[in-house]
What we know:
Chain B: InterPro entries: ABC_transpt-TYRBP-like, Peripla_BP_I. By secondary structure, chain A is mainly α.
Amino acid sequence: MSLFSMFGALEIGLIFSLVALGVFISFRLLRFPDLTVDGSFPLGGAVGALCISNGMDPFLATALAAFAGASAGVVTAILNVHLKIMDLLASILMMTALYSINLRIMGKPNIPLIMEPTVFTLLEPSWLIDYIARPVILIVVVLLAKLALDAYFSTRQGLAIRATGSNPRMARSQGINTGAMVILGMAISNGLVGLAGALFAQSQGGADISMGIGTIVIGLAAVIVGESILPSRRLFLLTLAVILGAIVYRFFIALALNSDFIGLQAQDLNLVTAVLVTLALVIPLLKQRFARGKRV
Amino acid sequence: MTTFTKKALLSLSALTLAMSASFGALAESVKSVAVTAIVEHPALDSVRDGVLATLNEAGYEEGKNLKWQYQSAQGNTGTAAQIARKFIGDQPDAIVAIATPSAQAAVAGTKRIPIIFSAVTDPVEGQLTPSWEASGTNVTGVSDVLELGKQMELIKQIVPEAKRVGMVYNPGEANSVAVVTALKKILADYNLTLVEAAAPRSVDVGSAARSLVGKVDVIYTNTDNNVVSAYEALVKVGNDMNIPLIASDTDSVKRGAIAALGVNYMDLGKQTGRIVLRILEGENPGDIKPQTSENIQLFVNLSAAEKQGVTLSQELIDSAAEIIR
């Protein structure tokens, strides 16, 4: 694997680690099976790309994209909390609606950003090669997001969100407004995903309506891979594990792309990725069994 | 975790070793061409095969003096981005990028390695090149844009009494939306109106076509990926309901359209391959003007015409490049 391809995997992995953090908040902390992500990722890309291509400051555009993502999360949560639609169905409805909404926002299926300024071109120091600079910038962004989440979920309000996820009845009896907490948690979750979408569009040359396909699958895989390579119950380590999971997943794809010399072909890519992820999940289990076997 | 990381690192380095060994074994004069496509379907695959055929004809042989790589993102733009990064990292002599998202990912990744796009309808709208002139950058290629006026004339020739043209397309595909926008501008000149039916997924093609029954006199389709993937669904509706089908790619005629005045994607690939050859021989991609297909062919399908209730004029049949019976 070349250095360039490794930095590419790192860059895309870091962007998707924001998605994974979002998915971690909804699926793990809130226990809300949220598929909105498949729509809020391209929504972030769409808003970001539209604003930038109309001459808006890329930083402001990226912030707006995160805000748009958060709004999508709020709508899903309201459908569930106030309109009593089952959580999974509410998110499917929102995801479906967002496809059309994203097309409306962009006005066409693809907005290129190849010749526009982006947060990356603005932040890149001239002495650093761009394909190294982008992951470096992203590491800072992802770490900031992680630390902010760690800090927030240790505050009173953050703990209330976690309590809502782990035991809503108990949380309500403690005087927590669980409905509001679900809405807030979903806003944070999808805000992160929208941010990721905007960053992805800026690093990959544009937003495309098809960029959301499979986002939830990748996010969930990252969460689970992360949990299996770094099992922990502490939030600080859990968020780190999720970020690592997203990056490892991307390295698996990069590996799969380089597997042509053993006779695998382009159409085997998804299969190879699935096998590698399965291995990552099974190895800790095998290790455990092996260790137990030795003791006897 | 640590042992796992070690294992992963070990297998990684083993892989890298194996790869570099295989590179090292090849001679100095080997040229490398890497092809990235957003998805696999007959037309896009034909482009890839066309490029390879041209390279083979020119004496480049896989495993001898050509290192040929092909990857498809299987519809996922994240994967497309990663394929672009992998190829750029491998530093091939040329990257062939098939369809808009794959081409954008490649162009966003490098300003140095020559990129030849193909099967992109509008490279200027997609910001692959600043204009239709020679770009001066590392990007050139072949567009599959069709002159829509000729398409409408074909419809008038086959179904002279047609007033309403139905079109099934994916509103999420840049190429298709570009065609619809352009069609709306010129349809009035041909005394036609447009009835749209959206097929956001390929499984929606059949129901989109059925929604047009009774509302249209003819169904025209562009090279929309969803529609081309599921063209048989359209053919079924056309045959059952006697609605003539006019396509834009010659492959669809073999699958049951009455006619298509279209790009032969194999030829498009060969045309792309000729640009690749010029670049392999040292020409600068920035000096080569982006091209459009030089080979537009008329294919007609006589049995489809019969099933869909149309009689083709002898004049039209005579002008066809290929007649399917």
